[in-house]
Design brief:
This protein has helices at 2-15, 62-75, 91-95, 100-111, 127-146, 177-187, 205-210, 257-276, 302-319, 337-349, 360-365, 370-386; strands spanning 24-27, 40-41, 44-45, 82-84, 115-116, 122-123, 152-155, 194-198, 217-224, 247-252, 280-285, 324-328. The longest helix has 20 residues, at 127-146. It has a single domain, classed as Histone deacetylase domain (Arginase, Chain A). Helix content is 40%, strand content 13%. It has twelve helices and twelve strands. Helix 5 crosses helix 6, helix 8 (257-276) runs parallel beside helix 9 (302-319) and helix 8 packs parallel to helix 12. The strands form three sheets. The protein has an eight-stranded parallel sheet, sandwiched between helices.
């Protein structure tokens, strides 16, 4: 029934293409930039021997996202997109993923002076509402794509979501944005089988946990091995019960670089998604695998993210009527993240509006050499043989 409803929505969108120009959606809200990172100095809470830092806070700050939106405005890319906001995810929406006990505790602290419920997840007064808005942006973006209102869509969600477990927030993530969006779409009959591809540099442990026993959601996480969390993300973790084989972790050695990510996409990700035959593809789009990121060491570039976007866009076009949605996750270099994001969103939109990578030459010189590439090929050979 759900597949029939999704097919009907797609058919209706096809019939209207001549009168409605299909566009790329961009979902954002200024209030998400106002989420606070608490009294931290980098990754450490201030106190003891940890000195307060001027302009301090967690690495997850509003500046990477705000500067991305500003860059899009300056180049004119924003004008080529369907720019929209969204409403907060409702309690009913959140309960599909998070238990009432967690939501109640979060809301009570939020209604007071704020607090911190998990690991590196501080929030101020009203933090619950901002997190619900962040989840709402992802929900609205995915729903618009599944209903055929947009060709594809990007949600500038903040705070991020892929580390958030059902009852325990961590890694800057307070609500599981993408998981909430997927469960909403499934509950409303808009999709049944969904791929979540997570190319944030950190393991998508929250998304994994939520769908670990679900054979209708294929979760794929490409991440730096033993970065964060250091006790999850192993290749051997393939799911449980009916979900065995539908969780795939691809832990990579530090320094994989552009060629390494392209090899992973070609040799592992594309065949796995193709075999799964999804109704939609959603991306946990973190940029912390990029060169110069303070929390990653993977040497990806803006071109890496553009090329991966082109590949998943083509996959979506061939497998599920182009239904592709991305939600912003990590990425902590305030200068470089905007260029990476601009490359991704312009590729999604098929736009020739560019923001040339100012670091392209120097980052090309930092790419790994032939010996490392041969080593990585051996790592991937072992993974492919074990699938």
């Amino acid at each position: 029934m759900m597949r029939l409803k999704a097919a009907f929505e797609c058919l209706r969108a096809t019939e209207n293409e001549e009168s409605v120009k299909m566009s790329t959606g961009f979902f954002w809200d200024e209030r998400c930039f106002w989420h606070g990172g608490g009294n931290y100095a980098g990754m450490l809470p201030v106190g003891g021997l940890v000195q307060p830092k001027v302009g301090g806070g967690l690495p997850e700050s509003p500046e990477t996202k705000r500067r991305l939106k500003n860059l899009m405005d300056v180049t004119g890319l924003s004008g080529a997109l369907d720019m929209r906001g969204a409403t907060e995810a409702t309690r009913e929406d959140l309960l599909r993923v998070h238990p009432a006990s967690y939501l109640d505790e979060f809301k009570a602290l939020s209604d007071g002076m704020g607090g911190e419920l998990g690991r590196r997840t501080p929030f101020g007064p009203g933090g619950y509402e901002v997190a619900a808005l962040s989840a709402g942006l992802s929900m609205a973006a995915l729903e618009a794509v599944l209903r055929g209102e947009m060709r594809n869509a990007y949600a500038l969600s903040r705070p991020p979501g892929h580390h958030c477990l059902p009852d325990y927030p961590n890694g800057f993530c307070l609500l599981a944005n993408l998981s909430i969006a997927i469960q909403s779409a499934r509950a409303n009959g808009l999709a049944e089988r969904v791929v979540v591809l997570d190319w944030d540099v950190h393991h998508g442990n929250g998304t994994e946990a939520i769908f670990y026993d679900d054979p209708n959601v294929l979760t794929i996480s490409i991440h730096q091995d033993r970065n964060y969390p250091m006790d999850s993300g192993g290749f051997e973790d393939r799911g449980t019960g009916a979900g065995v084989g539908f969780n795939l972790n691809i832990p990579l050695p530090a320094g994989a670089g552009h060629a390494g990510y392209m090899a992973v996409m070609e040799r592992i990700v594309t065949p796995q998604i193709t075999a799964f035959q999804p109704d939609a593809i959603v991306i946990a789009c973190g940029y912390d695998a990029a060169c110069n990121d303070p929390l990653g060491r993977m040497l990806a570039t803006a071109e890496t993210f553009r090329a991966m976007t082109a590949q998943v866009k083509a996959l979506a076009g061939g497998l599920c009527g182009g239904r592709l949605m991305m939600a912003h996750e990590g990425g902590y270099d305030e200068v470089y993240v905007p260029f990476c994001g601009h490359h991704v969103i312009a590729e999604m939109a098929g736009s020739d509006i560019t923001a040339p990578d100012p670091f392209a030459e120097v980052f090309s010189l930092r790419q790994p050499g032939p010996a490392f590439d041969r080593f990585l090929d051996g790592v991937l050979d072992d993974m492919v043989a074990a699938l």
